[in-house]
Amino acid sequence: MNLTGIGGIWPASLTPFDRDGTIDDAALRAHLRYLAATPGVHALVVNGHAGETGSLNRAERQSVIRIARAVAGSATGVVAGIVSEDPRAACDLARDAADAGADALLLFPPLLFSGGAEARPDMVLRFFEAVSEAAPLPIVLFQLSRPAGLGYSPELLARLLREVPSIIAVKEGSDVVASYEDNLQVLSACGRRVSMLTSNNTWLLASLALGADGILSGIGSVAPGLLAEMHGAMTRGDLVAARRANDRLRPLVRVFYRRPALDMHNRMKTALHLMELLPNPAPRAPLLPIEAGEREEIRGALIAAGLIPTTNMAA
After folding, report:
1. How many domains, in total, are found in the chain?
2. What does each C-alpha distance from 299 to 91, 121, 267 come to in angstroms?
3. For the chain, what is the radius of gyration of the CA atoms?
4. Residue 92, domain extent
5. Series of mean pLDDT values for 10-residue runs along the chain (315 residues)
6. What CATH code is carried by the domain that includes residue 63?
7. N- or C-end of the chain: fewer Cβ atoms within 10 A?
8. Is 192 in a helix, a strand, or coil?
């Protein structure tokens, strides 16, 4: 599927595990089917942070892509996260993704970049060029926080878009309004169609108001319908309906995106378990299962969002 110019909802999917820590293929298929069946979902994103990709080996990552491809069929795109500190390994993962049937790559910045990659733009460019040459797939650039050192300046972003034509979209998670607006201007001025996919999870409605083609977010693994409702309302110019959807999302945002941040996707697994959409909510080590008190807070957020009834008592 050609994802150039495609917006809408791109859920960052989770990776279910069995009690022994192996990937639960059946649960993964069911999870991806739940996402793909939601009106407004145009692509499934796998092997990102939400999918605990750092705990998956190379063969497991490729297997997840193959399962996603089989579930998505021809109507929904499959985007494979490329998370690696080594450019050679990133290239191997890109080739694996192409072989497994991915439609595009979501290229994460290596953590090494936080040490000052913005001051060495040629290093960043070579990283993108290497991955682009390794696999003939479009790239979604992950724009993270500049204060964290993992984001790209507007000048560097413009250069990447100019010199790496395979970049078709930006997952924008800078989490700073001014940076978001700067990046919107860069995309608008680049001379070709590059989609803006907001990932600013604590202010998704505000980012849609500023301008976005879609949402790429882990919260989409739990509430893809609410994201689609909000995005659709903003597309129609119906601010009242968009605010109504945002009001339902807010309790989920508050309970998922809080300290410690390392548990955010772990909490989403717990939410899906409470919704009876995931048999085992446990993450892979070194992450720990969510404790009983927080589990009840997640249940309360799901009730407030209207995703489970007040009487739901799933184990």
Report:
1. 1
2. 41, 45, 10
3. 18
4. 8-236
5. 98 97 98 98 98 98 98 98 97 98 98 94 98 98 92 97 98 97 98 98 98 98 98 98 98 98 98 98 96 98 97 52
6. 3.20.20.70
7. C
8. coil
